[in-house]
């Protein structure tokens, strides 16, 4: 599996939503904002819209086409407790996409910036 994530890459955010307050959208939005500020293109499932009453499977089917067009996956804390995020990371791993925690990606960008200064 690839481990390098280049600055400017298109990242998909995966993390837990079901059963969390506000579907954990604040964490998704915060991660998207910080990753974009760092220089990445971001696909944030929380920004893709939703329809009241839809089942979990509907959203996963909607999101997977976006995932496969990305170059890497940025995972939020608790992703391992989410059936959807586990499926998304399993698919990404099968596609040889890097999968890293958001904080690790941002730390690598900060370290790289320090090394170039």
Give an account of the 3D structure.
With 117 residues, the chain is α/β, with parallel strands linked by helices. The chain has one domain (10-116): 3-Layer(aba) Sandwich (Rossmann fold). Helix content is 46%, strand content 13%. It has helices at 25-38, 56-68, 83-94, 102-116; strands at residues 10-14, 41-43, 72-75, 99-101. Strands 2-1-3-4 form a four-stranded parallel β-sheet, with helices on both faces. Helix 1 (25-38) runs parallel beside helix 4 (102-116) and helix 2 runs parallel beside helix 3 (83-94). The model has no long low-confidence stretch (mean pLDDT 92).
Concise structural overview:
With 117 residues, the protein is α/β, with parallel strands linked by helices. The chain is 46% helix and 13% strand.
Number of domains: 1
The first-level CATH class name = Alpha Beta
Distance from first to last alpha carbon = 30 Å
* Contiguous uncertain segments of 5+ residues: none
Number of helices: 4
Order of strands across the biggest sheet? Answer: 2-1-3-4
What is the fourth-level CATH superfamily? Answer: Hypothetical protein PA1492
Which sequence of SSEs, written as H and E, runs from N to C? Answer: EHEHEHEH
Q: Calculate Rg over CA atoms.
A: 14 Å
Structural category is alpha/beta
Which range best describes the helical content: under 10%, 10-25%, 25-40%, 40-55%, 55-70% or over 70%?
40-55%
- The CATH architecture designation is 3-Layer(aba) Sandwich
Task: Fill in the CATH topology.
Answer: Rossmann fold
Average of the residue pLDDT scores = 92
Mind describing the biggest β-sheet?
4 strands, parallel
Number of strands: 4
Indicate the overall shape: globular
Report the sheet-strand fraction. Answer: 5-15%
């Amino acid at each position: 599996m690839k481990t390098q994530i280049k600055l400017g890459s298109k990242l998909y955010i995966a993390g837990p939503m079901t059963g969390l307050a506000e579907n954990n959208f604040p964490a998704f939005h915060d991660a998207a904002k910080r990753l974009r500020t760092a220089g990445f293109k971001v696909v944030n499932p929380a920004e893709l819209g939703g329809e009241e009453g839809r089942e979990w499977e509907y959203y996963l089917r909607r999101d997977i086409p976006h995932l496969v067009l990305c170059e890497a996956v940025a995972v939020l804390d608790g992703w391992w407790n989410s059936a959807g995020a586990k499926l998304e990371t399993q698919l990404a791993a099968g596609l040889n996409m890097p999968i890293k925690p958001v904080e690790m990606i941002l730390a690598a960008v900060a370290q790289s910036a320090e090394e170039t200064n």
